[in-house]
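quick q for whoever's on today - can somebody do inverse folding on this one?? i tried earlier but teh output was garbage lol. tokens:
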């Protein structure tokens, strides 16, 4: 069985790591390069860096920041935010990232998934989906959770897979930052309907929440931010706990 992955997420705004609740109330929590290097030393399996306002502000992710991250980190890391064309992807991969997270641009132009998968390989393409549950339906949002679309979570994830996505990074906007647990029912439905890995995001507040998302939710990876940024849970302790629960981990 493949080992489950623990992935700290660093949301970046104005060159600093920030964290909010339900995509709002953004607070500064530190330098992304220093935090990323710390998590790598602590045993994180991968890292995700998201420039959370790049799409909304219609600008590109900072290539120079990606270069600095690559110099200080020895584990795979994914970068997203403001990626809207092949040239963006080419620049970021050349700067040193291992995967690309694409969200708003591919909702508006799904063919970009095909182009990136064909140009760089599916293993480089992570389609991030921000969705909110309302009246029994998961609606996909873009521009950092600011704009609702006509897309529905499960049909959009299936289309992304068919176009060449290598992974789906699903963030439940209802659960983001509130630390009451992941959206395990929706994550399990995604995991069962797709043949590519599902990264679960939104809601981590305890070690038990990770156990639940890997067992009930059937996720391949668990992503979290504030519990690591504010030192509520240490990555080595989390991985030992999960291993003790019978979950395959890289220790």
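ok took a stab at it. sequence:
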């Amino acid at each position: 069985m493949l080992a489950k992955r623990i992935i700290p997420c660093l949301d970046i705004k104005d060159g600093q790591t920030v964290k909010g609740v339900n995509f709002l109330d953004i607070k500064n929590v530190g330098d992304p390069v220093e935090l990323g290097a710390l998590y790598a030393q602590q045993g994180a399996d991968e890292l995700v860096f998201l420039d959370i306002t790049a799409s909304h502000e219609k600008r590109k992710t900072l290539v120079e920041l990606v270069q600095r991250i690559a110099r200080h980190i020895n584990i795979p890391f994914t970068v997203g935010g403001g990626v809207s064309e092949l040239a963006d992807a080419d620049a970021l991969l050349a700067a040193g990232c291992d995967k690309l997270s694409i969200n708003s641009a591919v909702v508006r132009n799904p063919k970009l998934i095909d182009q990136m998968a064909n140009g760089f390989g599916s293993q480089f393409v992570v389609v991030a989906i921000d969705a909110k549950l309302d009246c029994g339906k998961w609606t996909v949002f873009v521009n950092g959770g600011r704009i609702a679309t006509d897309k529905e979570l499960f049909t959009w994830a299936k289309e992304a897979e068919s176009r060449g996505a290598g992974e789906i990074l699903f963030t439940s906007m209802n659960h983001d930052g509130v630390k009451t647990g992941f959206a395990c029912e929706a994550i399990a439905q995604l995991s069962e309907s797709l043949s590519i890995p599902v990264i679960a995001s939104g809601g981590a507040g305890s070690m038990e929440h990770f156990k639940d998302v890997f067992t009930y939710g059937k996720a391949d990876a668990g992503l979290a931010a504030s519990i690591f940024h504010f030192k509520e849970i240490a990555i080595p302790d989390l991985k030992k706990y999960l291993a003790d629960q019978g979950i395959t981990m890289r220790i």
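fwiw The domain at 5-244 is CATH 3.20.20.70 (TIM Barrel). also The radius of gyration is 16 Å. so keep that in mind when u check it
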